[in-house]
Design goal:
mainly alpha, Growth Hormone, Chain: A, disordered N terminus, disordered C terminus
């Protein structure tokens, strides 16, 4: 077995790379945007479609399907070519968006959001993997830095954009907006991006994917519903936990026997991949857990509007955007990538330690500084991890390695949202009862669906008690995020510093030895050995 250069590095002009990258950025931006854009529109959607008891499923359905399908998208891209899979993901995303905008009931919207999430998972993985096809690792920093910036812009700007569209037009246009932008991304990639890989005699590990989806989905539901919809020790929760554990163990067994596993277990013997997976999971867990509750604090405690709460998050977005682009540029110029996740996770710890003291009287200036520090930390971590793992694996594993890293970060975020949401829902009634000096929450106050518009109708004493309880509950959530941020810092120290390659590599098996020869579209792959780090 020898190593040879990958097929597309050096085959495209800089102009072609930039055109392809514009389509990839747009696709990834859309997928990331739809993770958060509906958050500020939820009360309005419930008012139109009713079914407040299913409110959180509008977000959970998208996150769940986009997360559990990422390994499958990555594997299919390795086997059939990433161009056609990325285009398929765009089509699925557009269809899901159109159907979501046309929904006439809460159940329809949840189902169509799940379809949209399937496409979104393919967009996120495909965009990152295609960049690995066309740009060498040593030059990839500036591109993944922009990915990180776009991800941060979508994450923080989503609530702002969603609030503005809902107030100015209709919540349905949150989904219709995706149609023209998705079509542009589809046309750009169709015209400019060449096919990257074709392989014969493939087999898809459908059993492994099904068990992964069953295990991960059940565990996410266990965390989401526990303590809120069902008691932790209820039969429903026990069944979900048992199915989640059984599905996960079954997945590990299936991967050992699969010919083309969804996530090859041998990747975990790669120190960089295992370190990135661990750091990504904990960072995702901490990031989504923290960012979910800042808009809630701003709207309830500081009394700002839905749209204004998005504007108040700009310091975090600026920090994330700037740090992501700057770190990418520095890495492309020869700076070691290892130090950025270490610095980033340390800044996350500092930011969360400051945010845990959040209170009713916290000034906007102080909160802005704390959010900026946390944003800079995130910007130094997220996309650098993808660059590290792509550099550490053979080109033939680029898709599964990228999707694996994305999967662990996404599943961490899904777990974080569920766990910290459960913590908030469980501590809020106690803090509110203490603030109001009563034994239980007054009738009519629902911590899961309270909106800024409803605050104006509360008595001043009740409003103040509600603000105190909300601030204390959010502070408690931030307190719980600190140990996980510290764990992310310790795990970042385990990340090895592998020299960035000037070209990706692909395994080429000698046909005389009985191995299967990988054919690359129109490009003859040389069997000349390539020195490590070349």
């Amino acid at each position: 077995m020898t190593l040879a250069p990958g097929p597309l590095v050096g085959k495209l002009t800089q102009r072609q790379i930039l055109l392809v990258f514009s389509g990839l950025v747009l696709g990834m931006f859309l997928a990331a945007l739809d993770q958060t854009i509906v958050s500020t529109a939820l009360p309005t959607i419930v008012g139109d479609l009713h079914g407040a008891q299913h409110l959180t499923w509008i977000v959970t359905a998208y996150l769940l399907t986009s997360t559990v399908t990422t390994p499958l998208w990555g594997k299919l891209g390795d086997l059939y070519g990433r161009k056609r899979l990325f285009q398929a993901a765009i089509v699925i995303f557009i269809v899901g968006s159109a159907l979501s905008g046309l929904s006439q009931s809460m159940n329809q919207l949840i189902a169509f959001r799940a379809i949209q999430g399937i496409g979104g998972g393919g967009l996120i993985v495909g965009a990152q993997a295609i960049v690995g096809d066309i740009v060498a690792p040593a030059d990839r920093g500036r591109y993944v830095g922009i990915f990180g910036a776009m991800f941060g812009l979508a994450t923080v700007g989503g609530p702002l954009l969603g609030g503005w569209i809902t107030e100015s037009y209709s919540w349905r246009w949150i989904f219709y907006l995706n149609l023209p932008l998705g079509i542009i991304a589809l046309v750009v990639t169709a015209l400019v991006l060449p096919s990257s890989l074709a392989r014969t005699k493939v087999s898809i590990d459908y059993l492994g994917f099904s068990l992964l989806a069953l295990g991960a989905g059940s565990l996410v539901l266990f965390c989401s519903l526990g303590g809120a919809t069902y008691a932790w020790g209820s039969p429903t929760e026990l069944v979900l936990a048992a199915v989640g554990i059984a599905g996960t163990l079954g997945f590990l067994a299936a991967e050992r026997a699969a010919r083309q596993p969804i996530i090859p277990l041998r990747l975990f013997s790669n120190r960089t991949f295992s370190s990135v997976a661990a750091v990504g999971f904990v960072v995702g867990f901490t990031m989504f857990g923290a960012m979910t509750f800042l808009p809630l604090y701003l709207q309830i405690v500081q009394g700002v509007s839905v749209t204004a709460s998005g504007l108040h998050l700009l310091p975090m977005m600026v920090g994330l955007f700037g740090a992501s682009i700057l770190s990418g540029q520095l890495i492309a110029r020869g700076s070691s990538y290892r130090k950025y996740p270490i610095i980033g996770t340390l800044l996350m710890v500092i930011g969360l330690v400051a945010l845990r003291t959040i209170a009713v009287d916290t000034s906007t200036a102080r909160l802005s500084v704390e959010m900026f520090i946390f944003g800079v930390g995130l910007g130094c971590v997220m996309q650098v991890l993808v660059l590290a793992v792509q550099n550490a694996v053979d080109w033939s594993d680029l898709g599964v390695a990228t999707s694996g890293a994305t999967f662990f970060r996404s599943i961490g975020g899904t777990f974080g949202t569920a766990v910290f949401g459960a913590i908030y829902v469980n501590v809020f009634p106690r803090f509110l009862a203490a603030a109001l000096h009563v034994a239980s929450i007054p009738i009519g106050i629902n911590p899961e669906s309270l909106t800024p518009a409803e605050l104006a109708h509360l008595k001043p004493a009740v409003l103040h008690g509600l603000q105190v309880a909300t601030a204390e509950s959010v502070a408690r959530v931030f307190t719980w995020t600190i140990p996980f941020a510290m764990l992310a810092f310790l795990l970042a120290l385990t990340l090895p510093n592998v020299q960035l390659r000037r070209a990706p590599t692909v395994e080429v098996r000698n046909p005389a030895g009985g191995g299967e020869l990988t054919s690359v579209d129109g490009v003859e792959v040389s069997s000349t050995p390539t020195a490590p780090g070349a």
